Every structure is written in structure tokens, then in C-alpha cells.
Amino acid sequence: MKPTATLHISKKHMPGLIQQAVFDAFIKLNPLRMIHNPVMFIVEIGSLITTLLWLQALSARGEAPAWFIGTIAAWLWFTVLFANFSEALAEGRGKAQAEALRKTRQDTQAKRLSSLPKGQTKPQDFSLTVSTKLRRGDMYLVETGDILPSDGEIVLGIASVDESAVTGESAPVIREAGGDRSAVTGGTRLLSDWLVVKVTSDPGEGFLDKMINLVEGAKRSKTPNEIALNILLASFTIIFLVVCATLLPFSIYSVNQAGQGSPISITILIALLVCLIPTTIGGLISSIGIAGMDRLIQRNVIALSGRAVEAAGDIDVLLLDKTGTITLGNRQAVEFLPVHGVKEVELAEAAQLASLADETPEGRSVVILAKERFNMRGRTFSSSGEYPEGMKFMLFSAQTRMSGVDLDHTRIRKGAPDTMFDLLETNGGSVPADLKTIVEEIAHAGGTPLVVTKNERPLGVIHLKDIVKGGLKERFAQLRKMGIKTVMITGDNPLTAAAIAAEAGVDDFLAQATPENKLKLIREYQADGRLVAMTGDGTNDAPALAQADVAVAMNTGTQPAREAANMIDLESNPTKLIEIVEIGKQLLMTRGSLTTFSISNDIAKYFAIIPAAFANTYPQLGILNFIGLSSPYNAILSAVIFNAIIIVLLIPLALKGIPYRAVGAAKLLRDNLLIYGLGGIIAPFIGIKLIDLFLVLLGIH
Amino acid sequence: MTFIGWQQILLYFILVILLVKPVGIYLARVFSGEKNLLSPVIRPVEAFFYRLADVSVENEMDWKEYGKSVLVFNIAGIIFLYVILRIQHLLPVSLGVPEPLSPDLAFNTAVSFVTNTNWQSYSGESTLGIFSQTIGLTVQNFLSAATGMAVLLAFIRGFTRRQTSLLGNFWVDLTRSVLYVLLPLSIVLSLCLVGLGSVQTLQPSILFTTLENHATQSIPAGPVASQIAIKHLGTNGGGYYNANAAHPFENPSPMSNLLLMLAETVIPFSLTYIFGRLIGDTRQGWAILIVMLILLLPFTGLAYASESAGNPILQHLAAPTSSTPAAPAGNMEGKEVRFGVATSSLFTTLTTSTSSGAVISLHDSYTPLGGMAALVLMELGEVAPGGIGSGLYGMLVFVLVAVFIAGLMVGRTPEYLGKKIEPFEMKMAALLILIMPLLVLSLTALAVSTQAGLSGITNPGPHGFSQVLYAFSSMGNNNGSAFAGISANSPFYNLAGAFIMFASRFWLILPTLALAGSLAEKKKVPVGAGTLPTTSPLFIIWLVLIVLVVGALNFLPALAIGPIIEHIMMAGM
């Protein structure tokens, strides 16, 4: 399956997005909005006060030259605007995606049914109504060409549905009543036949509505970790507020004692405050969160809660379905193992004959193997769709539990060992010892044995094997390095499961899985304090999905599965979990690293501003200005400009996230501390110096 | 600086590090209720107290109840001590004492001793009677230290326990701290001090005839050794005499001085071992001990270097104060000749890095940078190693902040010792790192902008500013060490001081307990390859940086116009 561009915002949209974000940055200056981000709210108040001081300096005697106060005020406004811009840009991508989705959600006509139709025929008497009037529990009819008016569960009928509006997948899917394919989504289109659907969500709460809200960020609530970080940042802000506020009386005292200079000006105090409070992370924190959700959407995953994205970074245990995730969907024949006295070619021929009409991938693989090994006819003669006369195929059925072919007087049968042993014994034969041995060996190796008989005489065994997907072993090794344990879930018996688990390189497996023991396994891990992630699609996965900390439902899954999950994978790709974990970790790492960077920056800013602030009281403090900034005003100005520009420079990082590498916590910490901690100490010294040189070049002293 | 000076400093550090494990093992046994060396003797006494007070060991408390007990017990202590100080002239043994203390001084002193600060706006020997000193102050010396230890134990239980709201029983923790730890150690140390020449008598003064002129002189005396022992062991620091440990009756010799230094630091350092032991991973405790040493040693070095270098201005006056091997003097102003520069610098940084505040030299007379070393060690929040209990729980709050940021950097929602750090923990941690600088800076600002505050300053220029900053940093961290230049016995300083001492003690204890309560209720997340390692050298460095940046950065502007500018001006740079 390939995703199409429904949710993907391509590069050509960027200029438009940026334009919109610039506009929104100003809208966001509304103090009622700003107050939710205490750090940037303080900056806004600072900008306002300095602007007033500038006006005062223009009209009367100011506390400092008007050009200085004016420039500081301008750059403080820029600081707020840059932060708003980053948030607007992050939101903008979501909005564009929401717009694309909204186009598909027009108000449609619904054919409401007053009661459940009797029998299996298409109901005829319905009343036309607007889709917004449909309530949970109502029933409606859709026919070829109709747009589905709401989410629902199919009660009656089978039809092919175009779900590209939601999934971006253009191939139609089959939806039918009962089973794992009974859920339909509002906004999708019926391509054939008809369906009777029971409404499962009230207007405005449907899947598409939720998706629009999510990608738009309208209902984005802060996640626990984001709240915790905000508290820390707010406390730093309060401390620095007190540091700067008390500096005024300290400075008045110092002026009195030194007998020279003038008390520190309000403009400089505000400049110092804004430089010290963690504006870098404060300005980017919400765009980091939005961008994290957005990165999921880019991979066609809809997170129904931000909490789940964060939790994804913490996952300790990954439950993976064997079929489709670890192995290719189907088993393949890899070997013919004849019993004593039978030639391999004889077995291969019989096996191929028995499988000619078997259209399952397993059956096809038997035919192909026989062709490869002995260059047998293969499927050539069946391409015409006709078989030689007298050939009578017997397809697999639940009653006989075997398949085969009758040819003249020859009866060839193949089937699972138990069934075939029964067959041999009921016909008066016995099961040869070497047959049993072969069967057991295959089972030990994790394969599936199929016994082949000819006229109730055993010929040998076909070895069917699960084919483990390429590259998985490395992937699981990576996960192990990340500290994540992988557990394979399979319905196979323990022997088979163990063999496949070993081949795939997973850490553990759950064999003969049932909904109950899946749920039990998750609870056990959680009781140990571990966080569990799993994927699922069937209704029987729903309880386990609801219990898991990160639950990804396939979009092709049933309504109960999708409701129990906290993420939905539109591509229905079971290995997506690994990417989701990486995105969660990226999100947290970006937050942590930018916080470190922001705090480390303060050291350089102190060295730039403190000597400048006391320049006329204690000129001796100039010794702290070891990077040689040209003048006190320029020093303060350079620090403020650096503080504003660094936000813009870091926007791409905030949106893209810090790349995650599976190298273990110790190494990650070392690397990030070096880059963002040490870098955060050094970078502002260089940056501030460069800005100062540039100011001098412009002739500002 | 001299080689022998460094040897003195190193000797102390080696001895204290060697003591950490044995003392720690003993303490861990005491607090986990296991059988220990003293239990045959003390268990019956302990049981007797529990019966008397109707306390059951099994009857544990949640954080609110624990906090309520701490508050009620300590406020009762303040009232009790206040009353004693106000009516001391009427009490036995001390009849004939000149005066009862003024209300503001009595209040300041009561809060000061109950909060383990031991700031003294008076001179002990002339103001207080023996009853006040022993029944009043010494009792609080024991109880304030025991309170600190009890709160730490409750905090550690927040990490060791899972999915419970119970943090232990305050009365049990308090009783054990006193009976098994503080009392026996004090008895041993008192005897050692008496043996080395300290006084221990109920006579209020010693009368003797001087050799010169055969005049009669009276030297105040009293039960000095017993009070000095707990003053150091409990990181209290309130001296019997005004001269504190510089007085020969408190601290007669270099040997007694070494004992006192070990006494005031051995429990705070050993608590890191108990921590490691109780949480079942001693490496965690050692990691924190290393962090404390990394924070402490450079400041000891700075103080020693600066004091050895002396005052360049005096050298122009042909009075060399810089140290040479022949005359290892350095800045000897305000220092005892029998201790010298190296030991004095060490003692000063130990006393300000624990919450002791005892002094053997006049900090006001230190060189600007030497004084700044003492000042910064307090302003870090007294966590290296800090007061009994309070030092470690303060450090653990820094650990939570460090883990929070570092944890994010490795891509997990942060956890420490298996406990997730979520908004509530961050709220409490934020309060805990915010309150101290907020109080210290605001009150310093108030003092330098009001007449009442300015009148206490005795030196002009930046040094005067340092005096005020030092006073509030000391009280705001429950240290109690005095820069000594400031004249603090005024209603303004007494009341502002009492407020900041009370606030910085109990406003921090309550969020600490709330934090413990919330941690105890959490599950424990198992450790894996993705878990942030909190014992690696890298994390140790990170934690040191966090303490420095979060703790000291707030004070940099104030330091710049205090000791830093004073140093630059003195050095003529």
C-alpha cells in the first residue's frame, strides 16, 4: 500500500504557510493568549514597557538615549513575534492538512431507516435527512455513489468503499457486516452495492471530525511532560524576575556607596530579564509539541492523544503480531521430505498435483518449489483454466481438513499431520516411524509439516516455513539498544513460535495467543511498571489495545479496535510502531536539549550584561567583559538581538526534531550534553561578539 | 599556600571519607529498625518513650500527617524556647543572669535554634544563663538536627516504597535519631573535648588571680563541652561563647578542631551512604557524595588560595601578608594563630557548606574572594553536604531537576530511581529551588533600601553590601554563620531574620514531604538500557552544573556588586 498525498504537505506549500504564519504571529500577540506561556508573556510585558519608555524618551528626557531604548523595544517585540511565528508555522501545516480533510466532509443527505429491515434484502422505505441530524444508534442506507453521512457499523450488506478521503489509499476496500471489516467512516464513498449502517458517533464527533481537530491543533491540550517542563520554566522565570527586580535597589545602594554613576535603568533591567529567562525553549516549546504530532501525521498516523505520543518515547515492551509484522503474511514450501522408499521427485510430483487447484499462497508455493527443484510442468496447463480430463480436485474444507486430487484411480491427499495420520489409520495402515520423525523435526524447526499420501500410502512431507521479513533482526537489535523488549504474539504452538522468535531475533513470544492471555500479558508487564505498546486490528484485540499504554489500530480494523486504540495508522502498517517510538523520543529529546541550551546561554549573557549594567557605577567590572564588547549599550543590545535571533535559527530544529539514534541512554546524554550544553555555553559568546562587531560596522556605538 | 597547609586540608578529607561507610552502615541499621551495636542498651529506653507518648511504631503517617507533626512539634519548641529566654532570670541554675532577652531577640533566637540555623544576635556568655544554654538551646540543638534527619528518612521512603501513601512515623524517626545517633556521639565527643581542655561545669564563671598585678579576673564558664559536641554533630553551630569555636574553652587545640570539623560533617556525608543503602543501590549514594565533594573542594581551595595571597594593599604598607614557607601567614586578620590560614579556610568552607555556621575565624575579615567562597557555598542551597538531613534532601531536589532535563535528552519522560517525574513533582521541586533565592534577594533588597536595614551595616562600599547579603544568605539557608561585621541585634534584623529562618526551614520541609508522598504513591519503573544512568561520571558532572547554574547563577549579579567588585578594587585590576 502506498500513501498518497492527502495528508502530506509538499514543499510548494511552504511560501503560503510562511506568509500565513507571519500574519498569525501578530494575531497571537493577544495577551489573553500569551498568558498561557508565562515565559513569553513576561517578554511581551517587557516589550510594552520598553516601548512606553521609548515614547517617553522621544518626547521628554528618557532614562537612556531614545535610539537605544527604541532598538531594545523593537528586538523584544521581535523575540515575542519569532516565538509566535514558530508556533504559527507548526500549526499552519496542521491547518493545511485539516483544510484538505474538511473538503471531504460536506453535509450530505442521509437515507434514514426507521427500523432494522427484515431479512437480507435491500430496504426500500427510507426518509431523506441531513447528515448532521443523524444520532448515535440511528440507521441509514447507502447505495452506490453515495457519500457515507457518518461513522458507523455495517448491519447488513457487503460493498466496496473508496476510503481515499481518510487514508489516502486509492484502492477500494471491501466492507461487510460482521467480522473485522464492518466499520465504515463518514466522508468515504460507496463504489458498489449497498449497505445498512448503524451510526456510532454523533455529529461533530466522528472520526473525520476528530482528525480535523487533531491536525489543526484546535483541541491540543498540553501533555503531562510539557506541563512539568512549563512549571520548571515558570519557576526559572520567577527567580530571574526577582533577581532583576532586586537589582534596582542593589544598584541604588551601590551608586550611593560608590558616589558615582546612576542606578541601573529599567530598560537594561528588562533586557537582562528577557535574556535570562528561558526564552529559547519558552518560545519553541509549543511548536515542538505540535511538530511532534505533525511528524506522526506525515507518516500517516493519527494520534488521538498527545499523551500517547509522549508515552511512545517511554515504551519498554513492544507487542508485535507475528503474521504480517514479523513474517510475510504466508508460509512457503521450502522442502520435500520423502519417507523411506519414496523418491523425492515422486513426492514432489504428487504434491504439485494436489496443489494445482490450490489458489492459496501456500499452495502456489508448493507448485513453484516442485518446478524449481525438478522443472515440473508448473502451472502451464492450468493457464487455460482447464485441467486434463478425469482430474477431480478436492478443495480444503473444514469437514475433511485436507485437500487433494483424484486422477483416474489415484487419490492424492495433503493435510496437517493429525488429519493425515487418522486417514492412514482408518484405512488400516499405520504411520511409519520415519514419517513421524520428519514431522516432528519440521515442527521443532518452527515449520509447518504437510503430509502427502497417495492412495492412503504415505509419500512424505512438505515443509512449509514462515518467511521472516528482511532487516527485522537488525531493527530488533536496535530496539534492544534503546532498551525496548520485543514480544511476538502468535496463534502458533509454542514450538513453532520459539523457532520463529529465534529466527526473527525477538526477545520473547506469546504462543497460542488468545484475547485473554494477551490482556493478561500486558497487565503483567504493567504491574512491573513497564509501558507496553501494541498494534491490532481485530475486535478481539480491542481489550488488549485498551489496556496497552500505546495502542495503534490499523485503519482497516474494526470500529471497536479503533476506539480502543490511542493512535490510528492510516497505512495499516504494523511495523509503524517502531517509527512511532522514535518520534516520541525525538519529541522529548528536542524539549530537553533546547532547555539545556537555553539555560546554558545564561552564563554568556551575564558576562555581557552585568559589566554593562554597572558601567558607570563600577567601571572596574569591565574586566568581566573579556570578549571585548565595544560599549555597554552595544553589549546589551547584542545580547538581546542574539536572544531573539537564536529562536528563529532554532525553528527548523524544533519542527524537525533532534534525530534519534538507537545508541543507548548514556551515549545519547553525552552527545546531547556536548552539543546543547557545552555548545549552549560557547555559542552565545561567539554570537554576541559577532553581533557586536556587526553593530560597530553599522556605526552604532 | 604551603604544602603543610594542603596536607591539613587533605587529612581532613581523607578521614571524613573513610568514616562515611562505617557510620553510614550503623545509621542505616538504626533507621531500618535492625539490630545494631547499641540496641541492647537503647531499645528498652526507646520502647519506654513510645509507651510514655502512646506512639506505635507500626502506626505510619502519610505526608500531611508527617508534616503536621513536624510543624506542631517545632512550633511548640519555638514557644518553649521563647518563654525560657524571656524568663531566664527567674529560672534555676541561672539566677543572677543580668536580663531576660528582649522580645525580638528572644523570638529570633528561638526560631534560630529550632530551625537548625543558630544565628546568634547576642553573645552567649554575657546574655544567656546556664539554664537557657542547656535546657533551652542544647535541647533544640538535638531536636532540630533530629527533625532534619526524620524528614530525610521520610523523603527516602518516597523512593523506596511503591504505591503507598505512608512515609513512616515522625515520632519514631525523631526518637531514633536522638537516642541512637546524636546522644551517644555527643557523649563521646564531649568527653574527648573535656579531655582536650574544654570546660564542663555548672559554675557560671571561673574566678582567678592573674599573674600580672595579682588582679582578680572572672572568665565565664558553664557546661561548654556538652553543648559544643551537639553544636557540631547536629550542624547547629550556635556557640556557647560569642567567639564561637575560636574560643579556647570551646575549641582548645588543633586536635579538637579536627574533631569538631569531622563531627559537623560526618553525618551529612554519611547520609548519602544511608540513602544508597536504603534504596538498595549504594552507587547512587556514592555518586551524590562525589557531587558534594566536587562542589565543596574548589571553594575550599579558593578560600585557602585567597587567604594565603592576603591583601595586596597591605603589602604596599610594608606589612607582608602573603604566605611564604618561612612565614605561612597570609591574611591573618581575624584568624587564630593556633589554627592558621589553611585550617581556618577549611573550617570556614565546611561550616558554610554544612548548615553549621560555627566559626573559628572572623569571616568579615576574609579577603573578598575568601568570603565569597563561604557565601556561595550557602547560596548553592547548602547541599554540599548541607545540614543534617536538609542537605541531602535539598540535593535530591537538584537531582530531580537534573534528571528531568537529562531524562528528556535521552528521549524518555524523566524518572529517578524508577519514579516518574511528573507535573506534581516538578511543581514541588520548582517551589523548593525558588523559595530560597526569592527570600534572600528580597530581604537583602529590603535591607539596603530602608534605614532600619542600612543602619546595621558597619563597612562602606561593596563590603557593606556583602555583609547584608551574607546575613540573609546565612539565615535563608539555616546556616547561622555570621559575617559578623553587621550589627544584627535590632528589631529589623531580628524579625526579618526570624521570618526568613522559619520560612526557609518549614516552607521547604512541607513541599519536600509532599514530594515524598507523591513519589511513594508511584509505581517503580524497572531499569533498562534506555534508562538515564544516574551514577555515570557524565551525570555527576551534569548534576554539579545544575547545582551551580540553578543555585548560583541567581546570585551572580548580587555577587558582582559585592565581593567580586571588592576584589577587583582591592587587587587594583
Q: Can you give keywords for this protein?
A:
heterodimer; A: about 700 residues; alpha+beta; Calcium-transporting ATPase, cytoplasmic transduction domain A; Rossmann fold; 4 domains; seven-stranded mixed sheet; six-stranded antiparallel sheet; 22 helices; 22 strands; about 15% strand; B: about 575 residues; mainly alpha; two-stranded antiparallel ribbon; two-stranded antiparallel sheet; about 65% helix
Question: Could you explain how this protein is built, in words?
Answer:
The complex is a heterodimer of chains A (701) and B (573). Chain A has 701 residues and is an alpha+beta fold. Chain A folds into four domains: 13-97 and 217-299 and 581-698, no CATH class; 109-148 and 151-200, Calcium-transporting ATPase, cytoplasmic transduction domain A; 314-326 and 469-570, HAD superfamily/HAD-like (Rossmann fold, 3-Layer(aba) Sandwich); 329-465, 3-Layer(aba) Sandwich (Calcium-transporting ATPase, cytoplasmic domain N), CATH 3.40.1110. Chain A is 51% helix and 16% strand. Chain A is built from 22 helices and 22 strands. In chain A, the strands form four sheets. Chain A has a seven-stranded mixed β-sheet with strand order 10-22-21-20-11-18-19, with helices on both faces. Chain A has a six-stranded antiparallel β-sheet with strand order 2-1-3-9-4-7, with no helix packed on it. Chain A has a six-stranded antiparallel β-sheet with strand order 12-17-16-15-14-13, sandwiched between helices. Chain A is elongated, with a radius of gyration of 34 Å. Chain B has a domain at 33-207 and 218-275. Chain B contains 20 helices and four strands. Chain B has helices at 3-31, 39-53, 63-86, 103-114, 124-127, 130-160, 170-196, 224-233, 254-278, 282-309, 312-316, 340-353, 368-379, 390-409, 423-449, 451-454, 461-476, 491-520, 537-552, 556-571, and strands at 205-209, 216-220, 415-416, 419-420. Chain B has a two-stranded antiparallel ribbon with strand order 1-2. Chain B is globular. The two termini of chain B are 22 Å apart. The mean pLDDT of chain B is 91. Classes of the chains: A alpha+beta (701), B mainly alpha (573). The interface between A and B is large, with 78 and 67 residues.
